[in-house]
Specification:
The complex is a heterodimer of chains A (304) and B (257). Chain A has 304 residues and is of the alpha/beta class. Chain A has a 6-stranded mixed β-sheet with strand order 5-6-7-3-8-9, with helices on both faces. Chain A has a 4-stranded antiparallel β-sheet with strand order 11-12-10-13, covered by helices on one side. Chain A contains 10 helices and 13 strands. The longest helix of chain A is centred in the middle third of the chain and has 16 residues. In chain A, strand 8 and strand 9 form a beta hairpin. In chain A, 36% of the residues are buried. In chain A, 32% of the residues lie in helices and 28% in strands. With 257 residues, chain B is an all-alpha fold. Chain B has one domain. Chain B is 79% helix and 0% strand. Chain B contains 12 helices and no strands. Classes of the chains: A alpha/beta (304), B mainly alpha (257). Chains A and B meet through helix 2 and helix 3 of A and helix 1 and helix 5 of B.
Chain lengths: 304, 257
């Protein structure tokens, strides 16, 4: 659907400053119907990439290609895109309703459709009670909800969101994530950037990972998880007497009531379990250490 | 289709500026005008309506230019700084439709401002026994045209420089545009061919705002040849279209980051 092809972006504000490479030959694509997370630390080049996709800034080299299903010219393509910028600001003296109407009209919707869509989405976003108020009276979470509503009001085929969940409270994050999942289930392609890894891990089926302007990973979340090399096991057991273990223990922690917690590698778990049973210990639990996407992300040195 | 988009942007720009209470200046300007008129009736003999008209047209001109300057300079930079521009240009709206909509929306405010201040001036002048020649309508039209031209100059410069620099440069261009004709007639200039050519070049390239000033003709009921009026109208229109073209070109090329 969208192909980001060999894009390099170099910023150079004036003759005296060193050029800054924000994106270095980055290539990825966003297929139809996918839910793609765009991951990277602050300054990795996520927002720059989104600005290039939306034609706010031009790449130094490379190009962005849109499939014909989105449209043949820029105006048709943009009819099929819903975009929410990072920390969006709105016209403070307009009411929420006026702003939604404004955005709907710009997307080519007639008055009746705008009304229908506002009536449909406002309760889902829990913003219906405040639509007659001026936007300057809205909290950050409320502005984010109104902004999100403007991206889906015109039934776009693809939704592009820049850090949509940052700065929201846990309930707000959960609600917006639910809406993202809902619109994705309705068949829309979702591409959203975040530096909050658990959000992407939770709802995306694919992840694109940028680090210092370079593409580090582009693939499924499950493949990335499988690449994690840490495979330790936590074994808890009631150990009534002191035992001299032959198994190589990574860690052993004494807990109350004769309970001990052992950390062993995948290869040593069977020998520890056998040793515990042969010494008359009761095994309480055996669990594999879960590696989160966040740990993979922060432990990576650009070698994913 | 595109005209519709321009209309929508213009409407919401107008609405937003209107709600920002900028037209409160009409109230204060009107109040000032009445105060000056009262003082004038006390100190002038026989011509207080002329003072009213003079001050009224002056206030009208100043207020229009101030709106162009101070609202024009942030018309785009505010949109870019606050990222509201992203919400609009991420939709099927060409950049030129956005910028023209913004300019037209602000000009709508100018028209309301001019209408209200003109009515105030007319009412006070009529109460004081004054009368008008048809030239008054050309004068008010030219004040609007001058403020449009200044607005376009300000918007163009604001696409290239920051807010403070844009304001300063625009004020300089406005002042020079009003004094260029007098400067060209200075003996010093006439005796220096280089200086004369420099001013001729400036006069050719940058807007001659002095052309739009008909206040003295109205106040002293002097006549102005219709050829001059139409030539100035054409000059203002063509210059405005020229500036619009440059603004659209610059804004299309501009990185919105």
């Amino acid at each position: 659907m969208i192909k980001f092809h060999n894009v390099t972006k170099i910023f150079k504000s004036d003759l005296l400053t060193q050029p800054f490479v924000a994106l270095n030959d980055v290539t990825f694509d966003i297929p139809d119907g996918s839910m793609v997370g765009f991951l990277g630390a602050n300054g990795a080049g996520k927002t720059t990439s989104l600005k290039i996709i939306m034609d706010f800034i031009r790449p130094t080299s490379g190009e962005v290609l849109f499939s014909e299903s989105l449209g043949k010219n820029k105006m048709d393509i943009f009819k099929n895109i819903g975009f929410l910028p990072e920390r969006p600001y709105f016209y403070p003296t307009l009411t929420g309703y006026d702003f939604l109407k404004f955005m709907g009209q710009l997307s080519g919707l007639d008055q009746k459709t705008i009304e229908t869509e506002i009536t449909r989405w406002a309760p889902i976003f829990k913003i219906d009670y405040a639509l007659k108020r001026e936007l300057k009276t809205y909290s950050k979470g409320m502005l984010q909800r109104v902004g999100f509503m403007t991206t889906i009001l015109h039934h776009p085929k693809i939704i592009i969101l820049d850090e949509p969940l940052s700065g929201l409270d846990p309930i707000g994050r959960k609600e917006l994530k639910d809406v993202i999942i809902q619109v994705h289930k309705e068949g829309k392609t979702v591409f959203f950037s975040s530096h909050i890894v658990p959000d992407i891990e939770e709802i995306c089926d694919r992840v694109i990972f940028l680090k210092e302007g370079k593409l580090v990973y582009d693939g499924s979340v499950s493949s990335l998880m499988k690449k994690a090399k840490v495979q330790d096991y936590f074994i808890s057991a009631i150990v009534p007497q002191e035992i001299e273990f032959k198994t190589n223990l990574k860690k052993c922690t004494q807990l109350p009531d004769q309970l001990k917690k052992f950390v062993v590698s995948e290869n040593d778990r069977h020998s520890l379990i056998t040793e515990l049973i042969s010494n008359g210990c009761n095994i309480v639990s055996v669990e594999m250490q879960k590696v989160s996407l966040e740990e993979i992300f922060y432990n990576s040195k650009g070698d994913l | 289709m595109i005209a519709e988009k321009i209309k929508i942007v213009a409407y919401y720009t107008f609405k937003e500026i209107l709600k920002s209470k900028v037209l409160l200046n009409v109230f204060f300007m009107g109040l000032g005008l009445m105060l000056v008129t009262y003082v004038a009736t006390e100190f002038t003999y026989g011509v207080p309506h002329r003072i009213t008209l003079d001050v009224g047209l002056g206030v009208l001109s100043l207020s229009s230019l101030a709106i162009s300057l101070f609202l024009g300079v942030t018309l785009l930079s505010k949109e870019i700084d606050s990222r509201t521009v992203y919400m609009v240009v991420a939709r099927p709206v060409p950049r030129y439709a956005f910028i023209m909509g913004k300019v037209i929306g602000l000009m709508g405010i100018q028209v309301i401002n001019v209408i209200l201040l003109t009515l105030t001036t007319f009412i006070i002048t009529i109460i004081l026994g004054g009368e008008f020649t048809p030239l008054i309508f050309w004068t008010i039209g030219f004040i609007l045209l001058e403020s449009l031209l200044l607005l376009l100059v300000v918007v163009m410069i604001s696409l290239l420089a920051n807010t403070i620099l844009s304001t300063l440069l625009s004020i300089i261009i406005l002042l020079l545009g009003h004094s260029i004709k007098d400067a060209q007639n200075l003996t010093l200039v006439k005796t220096q061919p280089f200086l004369q050519k420099l001013l001729d070049f400036y006069h050719f390239v940058l807007p001659g705002f002095y052309k739009f000033n008909l206040k003295d003709y109205v106040i002293y009921k002097a006549s102005v040849p219709s050829s001059y009026l139409f030539a100035t109208l054409s000059y203002g229109t063509i210059y405005s279209l020229f500036l619009c073209t440059i603004i659209i070109f610059l804004f299309n090329k501009k990185n919105l980051d």
